[in-house]
Amino acid sequence: MGQFEFSILSRDSTTAARAGAFSTPHGSFRTPAFMPVGTRATVKGLLPRDLREAGTEILLANTYHLALRPGAEVVRDLGGLHAVMAWDGPILTDSGGFQVFSLATLCRISDDGVEFRSHVDGAPLVMTPESCMEIQANLGADIIMALDQCPPYPAARPQVAEATERTLRWAARCAQAQKNPDRQALFPIVQGGEFDDLRAECARRLVAEVPSPGYAIGGVSVGEPHELMMRAVEAAIVHLPADRPRYLMGVGQPRDVLGAVRRGVDLFDCVLPTRNGRNASAFTFSGTVRLRNLRHERDRGPIETGCDCPACRHFSRGAIRHYFQVGEMLGPILVSLHNVRFFARFFEAMRQAIAAGGFDKFEQDFLKTVDSVA
Amino acid sequence: MGQFEFSILSRDSTTAARAGAFSTPHGSFRTPAFMPVGTRATVKGLLPRDLREAGTEILLANTYHLALRPGAEVVRDLGGLHAVMAWDGPILTDSGGFQVFSLATLCRISDDGVEFRSHVDGAPLVMTPESCMEIQANLGADIIMALDQCPPYPAARPQVAEATERTLRWAARCAQAQKNPDRQALFPIVQGGEFDDLRAECARRLVAEVPSPGYAIGGVSVGEPHELMMRAVEAAIVHLPADRPRYLMGVGQPRDVLGAVRRGVDLFDCVLPTRNGRNASAFTFSGTVRLRNLRHERDRGPIETGCDCPACRHFSRGAIRHYFQVGEMLGPILVSLHNVRFFARFFEAMRQAIAAGGFDKFEQDFLKTVDSVA
Question: Is residue B34 one of the residues assigned to a domain?
């Protein structure tokens, strides 16, 4: 695995939470780690410097979206994703599987791969494990994901079982087809829906059949309740190697993150910081602040007292509310900046709590004060 | 005039161009100076730090827009415009006159003032010289503008003459009604349309009747050809005191700026850098670059070689084109950043050419290489 070293630096005393670092050809990131989402090679509205200053150490970009526009070969010709995004730190690309099943139309799935039509212009496209690897080689991220089949929630057991089997076969083909194992770590994805035994079997067989520097748990955050998500994590994670990072895909609600970290998850991504930011909804350690609310009209205070983000250091709630009321870009920019910084502070606090052996208390205290339904 | 000192530091050898500095309670700015436009208390998409780093020394905000939303008293309660915008340098607010006549509906003008309906919600409003001064006192900019009547172009002489007379009477009432002459410099505005004698008379009488730390030339950049704009400047400027700054309102096309600077104008504002930036049109010293053009698709080069703006230092033309193609905010942000930096470099180059006594050659060389029709 060469460049891809996972070091566990501390373990919590009463939970399975652990804190560490994962190294990549573009530097290392500390875990538990949060990845802001740069769907189309940009975290919406934010410059790379702002992300770096907010404490972001790794970004996610979307294979499906970039394969459609501008095209993976265009990204390659522009020097790869790091050059396009002007981000010299670690980047992870998802496989595109999730977007194919959620955004594309007229999906036709076979063992070979998936035929679908672009949600942009209806163009017919095919993605196979092999083409998925080729696209991600052209994009050039440090961590790439195997093509998986993500069943909807809820789904009947036979359908989930079939998707899980296909995910296993595709993961093996991805490993075979991978172009740059020295420069790109391939993470396979555990599927299995809400069925514990399918989750467990998928995890076991992936580890046995597709040895990898890290593993992901997918097919979550698709509408299921918190408890089911936690069960899916538990069913899979006991079968995943303790010395490799575990990535819970698409999860970012603080309550879900806390529950996953206490069960041993190391890596997360979610659009919440920027999506909520664009909707004037700010995360704070004392709950959600909705900046459009009239009560902020003449409020000279910051979004969150004590926050060191550029929005809180320089702008009042009243000013930010005004920007949203008149539709100025600066509103979404400022609240996105704040939310990205909030997530960095949240994850830093989790790492410190783990190092101090007090994650359980940290989680309880956090949930007492935060309205986690953002 | 106390805080408002204008120092002329150098004069060109063969034109009327001069370079200097104007001091305000929030620091000084060098002239010729360009003001990016922060219509609604934000230069669209840009953080104050980015503006400062781009070389911006003074910003403009719009009285009309801010009086409608969030309201001048809300701005006052939030600590004034400098606090709202998080900008501690000089700010100028226009009078709102131009917007009342161009944006509002159902304008009814009388000697008392102008009745109109808000373009936002149709609410009936009145602006008088006195209320204009009160609004601008609440906003708290360093330089404020007298309420003027800006006739359309073209307009018949009797209509322009009447607007000019009213502008003169209103300027005197603004001077009477001004709240904070120690902290806010009031600039009256020369009107007179395309009629040289009206321009000259307006300038002469404003100087005689409304002694002020600076004067503006308004009613330009309303669709008239370049030559008529230059004639309007010439007709007015000979009657304006040489030791006070002259501000040509709403002008920003490089060809117009150059022609005005050579005639002795010191201050400009224009939406072009940010409006064109949002439309993927970049100013460079070798002409306009349209970033949506297919030829930039795989171009790894910057918008402009040698430019030190964050867009040119870090992002390729290909990446920026992609952001515009998919509608990502980062496209408008990056090209706006570049254009604001371009204008700062352009004005810095003019100041240097003036100091070196070579403005005429600078203008000729510039116009040879730049397509000034952006």
Answer: yes
Residue A84 included in any domain = yes
Amino acid at A136: Q
pLDDT digits (tens, 9 = 90+) for A91-148: 999 998 888 888 877 789 999 999 999 999 999 999 999 999 999 999 999 999 999 9
Question: Quick check: A74 and B322 CB within 8 A?
Answer: yes
Are residues B284 and B178 part of one domain? no
pLDDT tens digits, one per residue of A5-45: 999 999 999 999 999 999 999 999 999 999 999 999 999 99
Contact B70 A318 (CB under 8 A): yes
Question: Has residue B92 been placed in a domain?
Answer: yes
Tell me the pairing of strands B18-24 and B6-11. antiparallel
Q: What CATH number does the domain containing B222 carry?
A: 3.20.20.105
d(CA A203, CA A180): 24
Residues B52 and B189 in one domain: yes
CB-nearest to B69 from A78, A298, A325 is A325
For residue B140, list chain A residues with Cβ-Cβ distance below 8 A: none
Domain boundary among B270, B292, B309: B270
For residue B65, the chain A residues in CB contact (below 8 A) are: 326
* Coil vs helix vs strand at B364: helix
B42 contacts A323? CB cut-off 8 A: yes
Q: Residue A107: enclosing H or E segment and its boundaries?
A: strand A105-109
Which residues of chain B, if any, have pLDDT below 70? 1-2, 371-374
- Burial class (CB within 10 angstroms; exposed 0-12, middle 13-18, buried 19+) of B73: middle
Domain match, B210 and B283 both: no
Distance, in Å, from the CA atom of A322 to the CA atom of B86, rounded to the nearest integer, reads 14
| B167 and B79 housed in the same domain | yes
Residues A54-63 pLDDT 10s? 999 999 999 9
- B130-147 residue pLDDT tens: 999 999 999 999 999 999
Domain around B290: 275-374
From A70, A78, A297, residue closest to B70, measured CB to CB: A297
Determine which of B328, B334, B341 to mutate to test the interface with A (most A C-beta atoms within 10 Å): B328
Is residue A288 in some structural domain? no
Distance from CA of B268 to the nearest CA of A (A): 23
Pairing type for strands A33-36 and A267-270 reads parallel
Q: Which residues of B touch A (CB under 8 A)?
A: 40-42, 44-49, 65, 69-70, 74, 77-79, 83-86, 297-298, 300, 310, 314-316, 318-319, 321-323, 325-326, 328-330, 332-333
Same domain, B183 and B294: no
> Smallest Cβ distance to B298: which of A77, A85, A323?
A77
Name the helix (H) or strand (E) containing A99: helix A97-102
Contact B78 A319 (CB under 8 A): yes
Residue of B nearest to A328 (CA): B44
Q: Cβ contact (<8 Å) for A298 and B74?
A: yes
Catalytic center residues of A: 94, 269
Nearest to A298 among B48, B77, B318 (CB): B77
Residue A371 pLDDT level (bands cut at 50, 70, 90):
low
- Are the C-beta atoms of A360 and A263 separated by less than 8 Å? no
How many domains is chain B built from? Answer: 2
Residue of chain B whose alpha carbon sits nearest to that of A331? B45
Say yes or no: B190 and B109 in one domain.
yes
B362 and B244 within one domain? no
Note whether ipTM > 0.85 here.
Answer: yes
**pLDDT over 80 (residue A2):** no
Residue type, A268: F
Task: Give the DSSP per-residue string, B115-148.
Answer: EEE-TTT--EEEE-HHHHHHHHHHHT-SEEE---
